[in-house]
Amino acid sequence: MSHAVAGEPPAAAHRAVSLIVAPYSAAEWDLLSSLPNWTVVVSFTQAPERGVAAGLAGLDAVAAGRSFDSDLVRAVVATIYARHDGSASAPRGSLADAAELLAVARAAARLLERRADPADSAAYRQWVQSVAARVCRAGPSPGRPVARSDRRFLDRLGDALGLG
Fold this sequence. Notes:
- By secondary structure, this protein is an all-alpha fold.
- It is globular and about 40 Å long.
- The two termini are 23 Å apart.
- The longest helix has 21 residues, at 26-46.
- The chain has one domain (10-160).
- Helix content is 67%, strand content 0%.
């Protein structure tokens, strides 16, 4: 959890990401690097009336991972941005609903428990939860209390991520 990817030359950043990715298979890394974006999409579809602001809040929350004190989170964000830059493939498949997202979140939590540094695991799981929370809090009335349905969704996601 100590490499500083932000601000390093691209080659150094690429090496740091490679060291983090090494313990994971391609399918495992795809799961970890797809979960944050899927979280944005599924959180948004829970209440699409939130509008564009919710989607933007989710993208901003994903981008905020660049400044986390976690090599794992920064490597996942770097992978996400590489996909959007066309230098890596897009995540395979998509999630249809919250039940699928929760299943993927549970799988990610189990994977992290087995393979990741405990601090990186905690940071990643909290970051994914914060992505969903930012989407749920955004919308036409920012600052309003989180709706009961959103609170249930966030609680279920937190449980699936092992944060409960």
